[in-house]
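Q: What does the assembly look like in three dimensions?
Context provided by user:
Components: two
Sequences:
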Amino acid sequence: MYNLFKTLNRTAVIKATIAAVVTVVLVLIGSRNLQNFDPALIAYLIGTVFAVFGIAYRYSVWVQRPPTRLYWRRSMQFLFSKYFFPYLWRYTKLFFKNILAQRFIAHRSRTRWFGHFMLATGCLIAFAITIPLTFGWIHFILKPGDDTTYYALLFGFEAGSFQLDSPLAFIAFHGLVWSSVLVTIGAVIMMKRRFTDGGLIATQTLENDWLPLILLIAISVTGLGISYDYTFLEGKTYQFMAVTHAITVILFLVWLPFGKFFHIFQRLAQLGANLYKTEGTRRGMAVCPHTKEEFATETHVEDLKYVTKELGFDYDKADGSNHLDLSPEGKRSALAKAHLEARTQAGKLFG
Amino acid sequence: MPETSYDQEMAFFVDMQRCIGCQACVMACAECETNGQESMIHVNFVDRRKSPQTTVQVCMHCEDPTCANVCPADAIHQDDFGVVHSANSSRCIGCSNCVLACPFGVPKKMEEAELMMKCNLCYDRTSAGKKPMCATVCPSQALFYGTREEIARMRPDSEPVNSFFFGQQEVNTKVNIMMPKGTTSLLIP
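A: Here is the predicted structure of the complete assembly.
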């Protein structure tokens, strides 16, 4: 156990602790000193605080890796430059296109995009509903003398009201039902791919590819069970439904920082990589000495020379150039020419 | 990784002097299911102004892959057999670090899909005990997949080499290049 603590990354532990403490403070402030906090959700809150700690820890360790750190610094440097507003606008557009709509997946496969979009949208809706409820940020009340109007309090402030038997109430109270349906459809589509795609069958693993889908379906089905119970069974199986749902959700929260779900947070780096390319293009392109064509930004090539050295690779050549100055095609040709030279010197082209 | 029938006695041997530029490997590569029907092999002219010679390049599956080291998203994974897999599509952020840092010029960036893809030794086939697609169709045996005994019998005057020097950097690979007998490494100037 002591060894486990010894191997922890100090910087990451500090950042993760700060993130967890900030979350708890936000819960206290947002729920008006726990006045609006629902004690029935305490297990979910503990799971969420653990998830925040884990995500912040892993993110911090991840960002400390040389290539990730460089991208992170460059993204911040380029964003907070004199091009702040155009780049912020670009970030925002890409956030909607690539993070919320995940359109880049459609270029990999349309079915895959549809499945992933359903799954991700369902998850995002569920997060948007459950996190504020768990934190006590959203709270519903009835006022004396009026038992048909529900008032929504946001951070303790009245933010709106609706009639209990209105269509809006039906939609709002069943928000998690809709998200469960989206997640289940998405997860089933993604599962079908894993049964039929030869490439996926060869490379998939239980813990990284199947368990996340099974867990998402388990959360959705047990969540739907709660709704089914109070709608059709008069709450007779409530205890069972509530406990099984809580177990699956807490498993999800605890696993969030470690398994496949961490890609949700890594994906944001795609925005930084895009900006890196845009600003790099503005600064100038690198020309391959072999093909005489532009192949990447100069910034990228120079940064990679720096990062490879930091990682222990030395591609410097005797003439002062670097192997990474060549484009991919230039590198392939350099290898072929060296091979031809060796064969020629041996006096036999084939052997 | 899932349970496999990957045969560790088998190895990949490349001899680019034998490449005739027929593109059969390019067509066959697109049949590999782990690539999503995209061809990952490279066939290009070495120096078109001087010679019609073409060269063929598969992923060399480096022992310490530069591509995986420079990946900011931890998307490139090397398995227990030494196969360096194509980017994990849920993690790859399409930054092109691997494309530009690979000393052999192997990974490809699929721009619209924001995804790096590369040869993964036809893992759907090799993990089932079969040969990679490219090696099964190459008519000149510039690409050969078999045992070391087989290649020694077929190429008595050649030596499989898996050590390459790019300037100061030595890169050792799982895939071999056929060199003149007695050669132990290849220096790329």
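Follow-up: The beta strands of chain A are 138-143, 146-154, 157-163, 285-287, 294-297.
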